[in-house]
Fold this protein.
Amino acid sequence: MNVIRHINLAATDLNLLVVFDALMAERHVTRAGERIGLSQPATSNALARLRRLFEDKLFVRTSEGLQPTPRAIALEQPIRRVLLQIQSTLQSEAPFEPQTAQRMFTLGMSDYGEFVLLPKLMLWLKEKAPGIRVLIRSSDRHQALKQLDAEEIDLAVGVFPETASWHRSQLLFKENYVCVSSQSNSSIPNPVTLEDYLAASHLLVSPAEDMVGRVDSILAKQNLKRQIAISVPHFLVAPFVVANTDLIVSLAERVAKTYAQVLNLSIQPLPITVPGFAFIMLWHTRNDGDPAHAWLRDAIAQLSRDSIISTT
């Protein structure tokens, strides 16, 4: 049985752990202090006390800011877990009243996430929680994890093939890819064959801003190659470009079906098998017990089931 050493613990200022966590996040004394409401001298004093407590420099000044020592890196996650447990224990369990709540949530997502989620979400909030405001920050599978850890966003929605053990996730829906072209593009028959597909000029949607996509990797395994005429980083511009050119695009089905009628688009199955993607909601474990956060997660999950996933 582990026994808490009360005398030693009583002699330790546990607020120093908060300072340590802020320093690990910011790697800068002044910014760390601002993060937790301390002045620069007070933060510097706390760092000196941390160094005495752990008998290690913890942070070394470099041209790129403070860099943690191996000892600090080893302490980061244990201290973070302790702070999260304390926060969860002290967190108010008062019920969340959406009709009267005044709060802002910061969500991280790409343009695709904004497209499929925000119209329904804002209508829902207007009816159910008119005092809730939403701030959207641009995010992707790489940025979102750091943004959640740094408390820059409350919730992320998107494609996240990798997460950390302190993140929670929920599948919202699965998306498929389809072949999209203008109905006036006579060079693309219906159904489109693989030969027609390879002969066409393609628009590529590449959030990585390069000229190689998932389709190209699949084709390469068959010693095949398509012709990419243009690569764009955003899903939502693609239907408009394709509608006015002879280009074709392999596009998320929800985006394609939304614009098909108004832009006179032809939608067909791809002539090759391309796996779709899972659209996921992601949050940090520190928000598990927050009633307002839980309410928003439930709302997004319900909207995804009831409305967003429909493509008819």
User: Anything to note?
Assistant: The mean pLDDT is 89.
